[in-house]
Amino acid sequence: MKLLVAAPRGFCAGVERAIEIVEKCLKKYGKPVYVRHEIVHNQYVVKNLEKKGAIFVEELSECPKDRPVIFSAHGVAKAVLSDAENLNLEYIDATCPLVTKVHIEAKRYFDMGHQIVMIGHKNHPETIGTVGQLPKGEVLLVENVDDVNKLIPRNNNKLAFITQTTLSVDDTLEIANALKKRFPEINAPHKEDICYATTNRQNAVKKISPMIDGLLVVGSVNSSNSRRLVEVGKKAGCKYSQLIDNVNDIDWRSISGSKSIGLTAGASAPETLVNQVIQEFKKRFKATIEFIEITKEDIHFKIPSSIRNK
Questions:
Q1: Which of 66, 229, 250, 292 is least crowded, fewest Cβ atoms below 10 Å from its Cβ?
Q2: CB 264 within 8 A of CB 206
Q3: Where in the chain is the domain with CATH 3.40.1010.20?
Q4: Nearest Cα to Cα of residue 202 among 228, 220, 178
Q5: Are 151 and 140 within 8 A, CB to CB?
Q6: DSSP class of residue 231?
Q7: The whole model's pTM is what?
């Protein structure tokens, strides 16, 4: 059996930054530090940080006033920042800079008198945080083309659209085209909102899909970008496309007769989990490993200066 390992895969710069922020805060403040929502959507990462002293909560009311709280990489609504200040909580914002870029873009168009249409998943924390940047009713959410057809904006000629950063590139393009067709005057993002890591990982899956009998995507079930990789694999012709949290989730019987299997990982999945899968393939099938890289990534985001040198 051959195992085709796609690249880029795994941690993106925003995830690396968020994890580093938690680790630096633990060094600066000691145990425990509190994190509102999972810092990134990966169970391995969350459990590892819990072992080091991080406590994950969903509400600020769960945080003691004498300990710092970190906001996750997905971003938070402005109301959450206000609540933290009203509670006199010291907070550190680990929002991915590419998510912050979308927040700034939404605010800029709002200041120009535009109502915003956001392409995103309704209950995803990134979408909740982005919608919460503006007053209620100023961001209209669409999840598909049908939602576009149901939109009732305030003014068809004063619209702009933004997107969640971890969506399917192809699905988003279809929705964006539907928006442009229905609202010809709508303003599009100056630069695509879907982040470089999401795009690169989806393109890598498209590259290997014609060469494989099955695809394994390492990532947790609540990871949007990981789930999109599974969908991209299926649309690219790889019918057996499965999300696995780790090597223990692999259904070996389903792939035992395959000649080639593809392997990738979502942007919040650590490389150690990928390596465990590779080693198990070598052990079970004496598999040959081939790495297929479509591009190199060298992006790095700085952490806040307040914790940088701790």
A1: 66
A2: no
A3: 2-11+196-293, 98-182
A4: 228
A5: yes
A6: H
A7: 0.95
Residue 78's identity, in one-letter code, is K
Give catalytic residue positions: 126
User: Distance between CA atoms of 133 and 101, rounded to whole angstroms?
Assistant: 12
Tell me which CATH code domain 2-11+196-293 carries: 3.40.1010.20
42 phi/psi in degrees, rounded to 5? -155, 125
Please provide the CATH number assigned to the domain covering 14-96+302-307.
3.40.50.11270
* Sequence-ordered list of residues with C-beta below 8 angstroms from that of 137, at least 6 positions apart, any chain: none
Place of tokens 């899909």: 209
**What span, in angstroms and rounded, lies between the C-alpha atoms of 134 and 116?**
9
Torsion of CA 64, 301, 163, 140, to 10 degrees: 30
Per-position pLDDT tens, the chain of length 310: 999 999 999 999 999 999 999 999 999 999 999 999 999 999 999 999 999 999 999 999 999 999 999 999 999 999 999 999 999 999 999 999 999 999 999 999 999 999 999 999 999 999 999 999 999 999 999 999 999 999 999 999 999 999 999 999 999 999 999 999 999 999 999 888 999 999 999 999 999 999 999 999 999 999 999 999 999 999 999 999 999 999 999 999 999 999 999 999 999 999 999 999 999 999 999 999 999 999 999 999 999 999 987 4
Answer whether 277's CB lies under 8 Å from 218's CB: yes
Q: Pinpoint the residues of the chain covered by CATH 3.40.50.11270.
A: 14-96+302-307
Q: Does the CA dihedral 201-207-211-213 come out positive or negative?
A: positive
CA 148/CA 175 separation, integer angstroms: 7
Name the CATH architecture for the domain at 98-182.
3-Layer(aba) Sandwich (3.40)
Angle between helices 196-208 and 224-235 (to 10 degrees): 30
